[in-house]
Design brief:
Largest sheet: 2 strands, antiparallel
Number of strands: 4
Shape: elongated
Distance between the termini: 63 Å
Oligomer: single chain
Strand order of the largest sheet: 1-4
Strand content: under 5%
Order of helices and strands: HHHHHHHHEEEEHHHHHH
Number of helices: 14
Helix content: 40-55%
Length: 293
């Protein structure tokens, strides 16, 4: 009469969590790259003691201990673990496996990550000038990929997925991105990282100059260049030209954002240019830059 009668089941936390991730993939709710990240989160749960415990035997203390033992992960990873656990116990409630949701108990609150948050790595103005000057003697397509990232803030996958049909008279359409499928192979995704990543980037005179120099030999601006290859080139180029102590492709996007903030660009405009879903993401990512102003 009270709806509290439950049948015994030995289904574990890990089994339900696995089912949730696979359901999202099979119903096309998530992309291949998101599925790969979800599998990483899932593995943390299934490899733990908590993952093998029947869900009917789990209490808030067990969840607390599991979370506290994983604070060495970055805040973003810890958040994904907590979200998947929440979905797992909600599904258990919906199926009448359990009556109370231990995730809702005060004791099972998400802890903070103990991993020190990394500051945004961006080139200084002098380092950026040095990079641009060194690239003036480069003849490979890598030169234009690097310059486009520096002057547009596009993600590396977005640049490598650009087709000539995306280049309009006064703007660039960001409609797709290079991503990995579930087998780890790079493919052109059907859309961008998030719906907010679908955007237009104004073609400034500098960007137009870069585009004019790229040879039109294929449907894509940069055919058959995986991100890892560009990263390797950038490291070697940096070592040869002594631009900075270390460098990686995403630093180019951070450098663009840093210059925009230093120039006083409105945060909402920067959010739109970067393709962030929320303005808070932009604020959180570049807190250290704002604090220096």
């Amino acid at each position: 009469q009270e709806g509290k009668l439950i049948d015994k089941t030995n289904i574990s936390v890990g089994e339900i969590a696995t089912e949730i991730v696979e359901d999202k993939k099979n119903s096309n709710q998530i992309s291949s790259s998101t599925y790969n990240r979800a599998k990483y989160t899932l593995q943390i749960i299934t490899a733990s003691n908590l993952g093998s415990i029947p869900i009917q035997k789990v209490n808030a203390t067990m969840i607390k201990n599991f979370l506290n033992n994983n604070t060495n992960y970055a805040e973003s990873t810890l958040k994904k673990i907590y979200q998947l656990l929440g979905q797992t116990f909600r599904r258990a409630i919906e199926r009448d496996y359990i009556v109370k949701n231990p995730m809702l108990f005060e004791e099972a609150k998400k802890p903070k990550s103990s991993k020190e948050k990394e500051n945004v790595e961006a080139l200084t103005i002098e380092e950026e000038k040095k990079l641009i000057k060194a690239l003036s003697n480069e003849t490979s397509l890598y030169k234009y990929i690097i310059l486009l990232m520096l002057f547009t803030g596009m993600r590396i996958g977005e640049v490598l997925a650009l087709k000539w049909t995306n280049i309009k008279s006064n703007h660039i359409e960001i409609k797709q991105t290079l991503t990995r499928n579930e087998n780890g192979i790079y493919i052109i995704g059907e859309t961008t990282k998030t719906s907010n990543s679908l955007r237009y980037i104004t073609i400034t005179p500098i960007i137009q100059e870069i585009l004019n120099e790229i040879p039109k030999t294929d449907t894509f601006l940069f055919p058959n260049i995986p991100p890892r290859t560009l990263a390797g080139f950038l490291e070697r180029f940096n070592a040869t030209n002594c631009i900075t102590d270390h460098i990686h492709p995403h630093m180019l996007r951070h450098t663009y954002a840093t210059r925009c903030i230093e120039a006083g660009m409105n945060i909402k405009v920067l959010q739109k240019n970067l393709g962030h879903k929320k303005v808070q993401t932009t604020l959180d990512t570049y807190t250290s830059i704002f604090n220096k102003l």
